[in-house]
């Protein structure tokens, strides 16, 4: 009974091909990739995957061919000519195993619907590629004759989905064509710069017990710095967001150094820990304020990290000071401010008291505690540090003028 819904090798088959006509499509450069181990069809446009569909493929005894083909015919409501019943014709309808759409790709092979939807995902046909009826009808409208069709046997797939997740899958060797090693998987991961985030143990487990499961190994996200989206993407690993620090620093025009021995990134006198993922240095987003005095925020809708730099200058020279808005007023950390100004202060951590000697008198400086760090509002800086402060809200810059 398998022949009722499998691919039909018959000399009468050509009779059912009506024509190869064109449809109006909005896709730029569409192409189709069929991967047999994953039993999926990917529809590409402009070299980007825009849709993935589940399929059924040929049995081990009648495998689906591998190679590069193209759509050579398109038919709505195709008839079926059973190869074991010469002269019989099964018209379009619920008893027709080809479903209601046919896309011929080579000789007697094609992509078509099915009247046995539960077979999708299986290795059951005589070589054809079956799709759910709703899927093949959608695909039918999106491609024309001449659309390239590539049939592959790729047991390792690494991809990024619409949510920015990086997924790894090792699929079963359905036809016994290809054994794989840990290094084979790593070669795939290398294109995503994710080798160091996946252990050999996990890869061996996936190879020894291959399945259709896609494992999330990281999440990708876009990065916007001072209104400009950079080309490099960030990584989320174990709920921690990391940014490629050299790409961020380059956009900010900051000169940084990577200390390989101590695994820290240095900017001026400030250092923060970093990690290396396939030769790219990453820093956790929580350290960006310390390193560059910029405020990170997250845009869920765009899956994007946004970094807004608050430029801080002392006598026209940039200084590395964190900037925060406290109670509606811009503030900077008091101890680093005193250091860059060269002013001596006394800090009592236990009492959280900041004092300074002014004209022989010990003066208490008003502060606001943020994460155990004393901040001073810019409205108090002139009175207690004798520095003039100019804040340009639109340009997001703070200028200190100090003798």
From TrEMBL:
PROSITE patterns: LD_TPASE, PROKAR_LIPOPROTEIN. Residues 30-152 form the L,D-TPase catalytic domain. Gene3D superfamilies: L,D-transpeptidase catalytic domain-like (2.40.440.10). InterPro entries: LD-transpeptidase, LD_TPept_cat_dom, Mao_N_sf, Transpep_catalytic_dom. Pfam families: YkuD. Pathway: Cell wall biogenesis; peptidoglycan biosynthesis. Belongs to the YkuD family. This is L,D-TPase catalytic domain-containing protein. It comes from Sporomusa silvacetica DSM 10669. The lineage of its organism: Bacteria, Bacillati, Bacillota, Negativicutes, Selenomonadales.
